[in-house]
Amino acid sequence: MAAAVCLLSLPSRAAPPSVTFITCATTSTSTISTIPPPPPAPLLLVQEPKTTSPISPSSCALNCRHFQSCSGCTHEYNLHHPPILADVNKFFKKIGVSNFTFDSCRLWGWRCRAKLAVRGSSMKPLIGLYEEGTHNAVDIPECQAHHPSINAAVDLLRQAIVELRIEPYDEDNGTGELRYVQMAVTTYSTSLPSAERYKNGKVQVALVWNSRSESSPSFEKLNALSNYMWNKGGPRRDVHLIHSVWANFQTSMSNVIFGNRWRHLIGERDFWEHVGGIDVSMVPSSFGQANTRAFDSLLQKLQKCVPYGSSVVDLYAGAGVIGLSLAATRKCRSVKCVEVNKEAKYSFEKTASRLPTTVDCCISWHQADTSKEPLSWLMGSDVVVVDPPRKGLDPSLITALQSLSFTKIKNNLPESSKRNVQNEKRPWILRGDGSVQINKEMGQGESQSSLPQTLIYISCGWESFKEDCMSLLSRKAWRLEKVHGFNFFPGTQSIEILAVFKRGSGGSIKKKKSGKKKKPARGPLAVIEDNLFEESLFDKIENLE
């Protein structure tokens, strides 16, 4: 169901800011308010599409002609300063955090991955998102958030639909042929100077076809569509736009975008990107960050928070990009990646095969549910990295993290957890010599005698992060050391949080005056020294809410 969320309508847009709102220093508010809408630009296969915007990038205005009808963006002005920042700053101020920083990231052309509905008719196809509150598709050929290569590939697809008479999907009747398209841009190209790679990104096109498999009668039209895209945008053209074309087969009447069956049709099979200092492999079914450059910035900052030589466990790991980047850059003793989706294993294995030969680290990937006996995954690690979905951490994991201060390794670890840690058959282990060993028993050289001292929390759901943060601080097992925010989705009410917690008392919850003498605060954050038996702990949490 998560795949369908990308096309659902977003919350109501914010109104244009008044003159009191912060704008970029080089642009006045009056300048923004008088900017005319940009004229339509021809969607041609050009290497570097010319901008039709009359404003300079320093104005930080979206300047997109689709804004009023498209649900993709919720505010039009001050892209560098999303409205959600007010609540973010207020929250961290209340819990005593004064070192919060924010990276505004790239403001236009940042989206390198897009799932778009295909509706309308074969003569007038609509390729875009749904209008707010409806399932009426809005054509967005000049989306300012999309990487320019996505807009060019969408224009090529539109031409193909018209010329080949491909029937867009009809939701009401369940008829038609092409339901959705996913466009993913790779900027990985060792043949180009690094400064030119982003603007020359190639597009992996995934066509969601309304049939059960390639044996359906309409497969010939799908094949013709694939060949059209490749012939018009492949390597033999002046501009090489199309990386590859894939098909996904889906007949469900639900909002789920992808079915379970995939087929590679044409072009390169392997899709690579370079982030966090490593080459990352992805398939169309993989979860991928839409904002590649912002994600790379986050990984670089995250790496500095992990001490050299640490043992790391990466929970909610997906294809293990975070864990593998730490193995390559921080000389980790061991890295365990834990992910519930078995489909991520293929990308993990491909990515691990590209690690530098100098990496001397025991690396493993586990298909497992983090919510089940989470303590068994925490044991033996110095650093825990969590990157949960928007709903936040599983309650059982929060409980395990809260109880670490009271955990004695020999006596308190459940017998079932001990067995899992000692005898578990790993899906595979990659060692420093680059060899892959199937079903290798855990063992040699990995100590289970330590407990994590650092928790690194990456959050894409602000409301759930606030709740989880308060839960972690409430038991004094963790203190919040530093927080950084990233503008992963400019123009929306979203923020990506990178928070670093350290073991030990000193949760940053401000305490009400009780008339009793307080002990001096320790470190950069206020330290709670409450000698009563959790007397008013949860009252404080309620006051913050």
Structure description:
- This protein is of the alpha/beta class.
- Helices cover 23% and strands 21% of the residues.
- The protein contains 14 helices and 19 strands.
- It has helices at 29-33, 85-94, 148-164, 194-197, 219-233, 292-303, 321-329, 344-353, 375-378, 395-402, 409-412, 415-423, 462-474, 537-544; strands at residues 101-103, 113-120, 125-130, 137-139, 178-186, 202-209, 242-249, 261-267, 271-275, 278-282, 311-315, 334-339, 362-367, 383-386, 428-430, 436-438, 454-459, 478-486, 496-503.
- The protein has a 10-stranded mixed beta sheet, sandwiched between helices. Strands 4-3-2-5-6-7-8 form a 7-stranded mixed beta sheet. The protein has a two-stranded antiparallel ribbon with strand order 9-10.
- α5 links the parallel β6 (202-209) and β7.
- α3 (148-164) packs across α5.
- The radius of gyration is 25 Å and the shape is globular.
- Residues 1-58, 410-428, 431-445, 507-514 and 518-545 have low confidence and may be disordered.
